[in-house]
Design a protein that fits this description.
Layout lengths: L2 E2 L11 E2 L9 H6 L1 H12 L2 E6 L2 E7 L1 H9 L5 E2 L1 H8 L12 H12 L4 H20 L7 E2 H18 L7 H18 L11 H25 L5 H7 L10 H32 L1 H14 L6 H4 L3 H13 L5 E6 L3 E3 L2 E3 L4 E5 H4 L44 H18 E4 L8 E2 L5 E2 L4 E6 L1
Parallel strand pairs: 4-10
Antiparallel strand pairs: 1-2, 3-4, 5-7, 6-14, 7-10, 8-9, 11-14, 12-13
Helix pairs in contact: 6-7, 6-16, 7-11, 8-9, 9-11, 11-14, 11-16, 12-14
The chain binds protoporphyrin IX containing FE.
Length: about 450
């Protein structure tokens, strides 16, 4: 039976939906098969509906109209911090994505200065040696597990680019930092959300403290120096209005940025390795372009000439959207597509399902990078049809950095290796938090 979330005031409709199982609601259905769960929901209730998810009622937004309305957030009734905190706990508090209103705008203006074209060029230079060093340590073979290898690689890159030239720090200290960071990430999706001994949550609390101490210890040296790593850059950047980050801000942003940059790029890379392995024609096209660049260490400008790999990356982010949904909480009564959303409601903006809707994407389950090519541009069907980086005021600030990082890694891989994945293979994705391949994404990897 369809129940309503809350009675609507005159002029608005209530949000339709149903709770599902006691307490868990639709959480298990979603984790088992998010696309099927949202498909049923959309057919039954339309683009705005509600369900229970692990105890709380959530409004679920499906399709570009509903997602676009929430991302634009015209009346500022939907807040990020109170939304995301429910899902990822306190471990990334005061990161840019969790700030709201004027404070968010001010911090975003400052942080944008750390991602200018000039900065991106310098980060790109630092990527090459770090990627080479990581690939030198690989042992290519049949059944090579691409996902864990990429996870280690991107964490190494984050350490190099974000804290590069951390000459004072020892490898052991960096291992401890990485472990603390992984502790925070794992705690964010823990089921037991209280610091009992032996729990992920407790490791997360300790991890956060460790990271704060670490960044705070090295902060004075970064303030005094003029390094090109992101940590140094955040200490010095200034918005056009003359705003700057305090020491606490730098620490909070660094911890969040490590998280934002890590799993998302890993997922895209691992998805790209799968599909390029299954579609050798696309792999060859990408490799031809990489070879045509005539350099193993392309600059930021050179990378812009790798246009085929751009199409592949976009298609991979459509098929496996690294952040499948973004979270908001209504902090004032509002409406979405004429449906009444009362203050306090949690909102899930369903980006991943929207990328698979037959209404907007011809043959949506097919790997077809050409759909993004200039002569087709299927993503132009709606401004919010393709939104792996979100939209509106909180649109991903690392979008261009991530593009550079992913392209540079793929460029190095295309020049060094060939790989193959059987045509009929399907990735068993786990959606407990961000999607990851439960089998580690095996590929048959061989040196060229
Ligand atoms: C494939 C890679 C990535 C994807 C798919 C991705 C996706 C997203 C999404 C969907 C949001 C919006 C969240 C919201 O609306 O609540 C976001 C925000 C953000 N991302 Fe990314 N991201 C990626 C890589 C990165 C990287 C590499 C960095 C940093 C170097 C980064 C930094 C940020 C920041 C700072 C925000 C917050 C922006 C704001 O709230 O104003 N992201 N990202």
């Amino acid at each position: 039976m369809t129940k309503m979330l809350a009675p609507a005031p005159v002029g608005l409709d209530a949000v339709p939906g149903n709770a599902g199982l006691p307490y868990v609601g639709y959480a298990l259905d979603y984790m088992r098969d998010p696309l099927k769960t949202y498909e049923r929901r959309y057919r039954q209730h339309g683009p705005v509906s509600w369900f229970r998810f692990a105890g709380d009622p959530w409004v679920v937004l499906i399709g570009p109209d509903a997602c676009g309305a929430a991302l634009q957030n015209r009346d500022r009734a939907l807040a990020n911090g109170p939304g995301w905190r429910t899902l990822i706990g306190p471990f990334f508090d005061r990161g840019l994505m969790l700030l709201d209103g004027d404070e968010h705008s001010s911090h975003r203006r400052i942080m944008a200065q750390a991602f200018t074209r000039d900065r991106l060029s310098r980060y790109t230079e630092a990527l090459h040696p770090a990627i080479d060093a990581a690939l030198d340590g690989w042992s290519p073979r049949d059944g090579f597990r691409a996902y864990p290898a990429m996870k280690e690689l991107t964490l190494g890159l984050a350490t190099a680019i974000f804290m590069g030239g951390a000459e004072e720090t020892s490898p052991r200290e960096m291992d401890a930092v990485n472990a603390a960071f992984v502790g925070c990430v794992q705690a964010a999706t823990a089921i037991v959300r209280y610091p009992l001994p032996g729990t992920r949550w407790r490791r997360g609390v300790r991890g956060r403290r460790h990271l704060e101490d670490f960044f705070r210890r090295y902060l004075p040296a970064r303030r005094a120096g003029d390094g090109d790593d992101l940590f140094s850059v955040l200490c010095h950047v200034e918005s056009e209005e003359g705003e700057r980050f305090s020491d606490d801000d730098v620490v909070d942003h660094m911890i969040f940025l490590m998280m934002a940059a890590h799993d998302t790029s890993t997922i895209t890379l691992s998805t790209a390795l799968r599909y390029l392995g299954q579609f050798p024609t696309w792999q060859d096209l990408c490799r031809d372009e990489s070879e045509a660049l005539g350099t193993e260490t392309p600059s930021f400008d050179d990378l812009e000439r790798l246009t085929t790999v751009d199409l592949v990356i976009k298609e991979c982010q459509r098929l496996v959207t690294p952040v499948p949904g973004v979270v908001r909480r209504a902090v004032a009564d509002t409406e979405i597509l004429g449906r009444y959303v009362p203050a306090g409601t949690l909102v899930n903006v369903g980006l991943h399902y929207t990328h698979h809707m037959t209404e907007y994407w011809p043959d949506p389950e097919r790997f077809d990078p050409g759909r993004f090519a200039a002569e087709r541009r299927e993503d132009r069907v709606h401004k919010y049809a393709w939104t792996p980086f979100g939209g509106g005021a909180h649109r991903c600030l690392g979008m261009h950095f991530s593009g550079t990082e992913i392209k540079t890694v793929l460029h190095h891989m295309l020049l060094r290796y060939r790989w193959h994945v059987p045509a009929g293979y399907e990735t068993p994705l786990n959606f407990t938090s961000l999607p990851y391949p439960q089998d580690g994404q095996p590929i048959d990897l061989h040196p060229r």
